[in-house]
Amino acid sequence: MKKNRLSERMGILIICLSCLFMSGCSLTTAVENLLSPPKLTEDQNEIYQELINSVGKNVKLKYPRNGDYRSAFVIRNIDDEPGDEALVFYESKDIRSGESALRLKFLDSSSGKWESTYDLACPGNEIDSGVCLLGRKHSEVRRDKRRGER
């Protein structure tokens, strides 16, 4: 009787350990590594290619964590010229000492082609929310408040 009970417990232990180790989950994997970014639209892909051409391949798109607008790309007409402009939030892996890795790239559409116009280093390392105000000529970006940023 005692031998049956011991083998029953060993069987249950083996089943539980098998479920734990064969589940495909890892205790050391970060959430960001489990998620994949959304598929880019045709416009976003063209903008991304110009971003890569202007700053190099060592970039990671940054997405706002909160709010209704959670895209790394903001495409709006922010000046009075014809055509849209694009703002791209990204993190550069190739930064100089003392610079922020969080960047904001400005691009302009000219004759159907996107051209890089300006690159801005942003304080902080995350984007809290991106708010696009329709009817206004600007977008508001709030950085992560938990890190003491505005």
Describe what is shown at a glance.
This protein is an alpha+beta fold and 150 residues long.
Secondary structure topology:
Blueprint lengths: L1 H20 L9 H4 L7 H14 L3 E3 L11 E4 L8 E8 L9 E9 L2 E9 L5 E6 L6 E5 L7
Antiparallel strand pairs: 1-3, 2-3, 3-4, 4-5, 6-7
Provide a descriptive summary of the structure in words:
The strands form 2 sheets. Strands 1, 2, 3, 4 and 5 form a 5-stranded antiparallel sheet that branches. It is built from 3 helices and 7 strands; from the N terminus they run αααβββββββ. Mean pLDDT is 76; it is low at 133-150. The protein has one domain. With 150 residues, it is an alpha+beta fold. It is elongated and about 85 Å long. The chain starts with a helix and ends in a 7-residue tail after the last strand. The chain has helices at residues 2-21, 31-34, 42-55; strands spanning 59-61, 73-76, 85-92, 102-110, 113-121, 127-132, 139-143. Strand 4 (102-110) and strand 5 (113-121) form a beta hairpin.
Structure keywords:
150 residues; alpha+beta; five-stranded antiparallel beta sheet; two-stranded antiparallel sheet; 3 helices; 7 strands; 25% helix; disordered C terminus
Let me know the largest β-sheet.
Answer: 5 strands, antiparallel
Output the radius of gyration: 23 Å
What is the CA–CA distance across the termini? 69 Å
Structural class: alpha+beta
**How many helices in DSSP terms?**
3
Number of strands: 7
Indicate the proportion of strand residues. 25-35%
Helix content: 25-40%
Uncertain stretches: 133-150
| Count of the separate structural domains | 1
Mean pLDDT: 76
Q: What sequence of helices (H) and strands (E) makes up the elements?
A: HHHEEEEEEE
Q: What is the approximate shape?
A: elongated
